[in-house]
């Protein structure tokens, strides 16, 4: 907005106010007196431009976006710890029950047993919040000796650890709150409640899905992939606390629609098929995240464009999605997930 308020423009306006019979050339007393003020004013205009962007939800960032969103009751999701499955056996390879609160280490991460699932299996919560707790699998080492323990394995991710919510995600929820206001438990309310739970990336709401008074909420995780049973249970519990009296709410995970891609490609000099396939997989993953819950089909043409724009690809032929050269339809409860990628030359 203030891009025209440059040092030169401001200084020239100031000099124009000085009578022409006074020396205004660079190096003159008048010029040297006005130039520092013009420089400060130009800096002020530049900072005003930044301030102007920070007061609007679509362009605000960081702590200023936090403050803007907080005015409407939308708050940034804080980092949460991963909850993993721990599998424990004794010296005879039989299930072994460890004490609740037992702490184990895997490389630089520490996990603590918080709940028994079944004999020999426990929920293990990372002591460090964030997605770092999702990444490693393998043998756990007890921080303090546990008599009778044979093996300790860190297995499935039950509830993914989440990093602090990004500006883009917070902005999306804020604008949704403002543009789709909730009123007494309408569909916008249920969508907002679901996405307030850490780990939920998006939600779709179907009112009256099983008759009067029923609501179905379909969720995906922050990677726009099907949610775990534990995350579904968390969303169900949270909505039950805030929903209007009388509503019957069912929360389910989206179903993953596997998309298998096959094609022949012409490679540019210096590229390998593996290089191209890896880069193409990243593009597909981003595209699938983009269309989850927003499109009713996976576009054959779009995937062809992504393949052609992949570094190292000069041309392609024989492109198929799930065996056919057509769009892949998505049902209301489906999101696309990457299946197999088969590229040939």
What does this structure look like?
Residues 259-343 form the Baseplate J-like C-terminal domain. It comes from Anoxybacteroides amylolyticum. It holds the Pfam family Baseplate_J_C. Keywords: Plasmid. This is Baseplate J-like family protein. By secondary structure, this protein is of the alpha+beta class. The protein has 4 domains: 7-70, no CATH class; 83-159, no CATH class; 180-253, GMP Synthetase, Chain A, domain 3; 256-344. It has 8 helices and 15 strands. It has helices spanning 7-16, 29-54, 62-70, 167-179, 187-195, 229-242, 273-291, 300-308; strands at residues 83-90, 103-106, 109-118, 121-126, 138-139, 141-142, 149-159, 200-207, 214-221, 248-253, 255-267, 297-298, 313-321, 328-329, 334-344. Strands 5-7-1-4-3-2-6 form a 7-stranded antiparallel sheet. The protein has a 3-stranded mixed sheet with strand order 8-9-10, with helices on one face. A 3-stranded mixed sheet has the order 13-11-15, with helices on one face. A hairpin with a 6-residue loop joins strand 8 and strand 9 (214-221). Helix 3 (62-70) runs parallel beside helix 4. The longest helix is centred in the first third of the chain and has 26 residues, at 29-54. It is extended, with a radius of gyration of 28 Å. It starts with 6 loop residues before the first helix and ends with a strand.
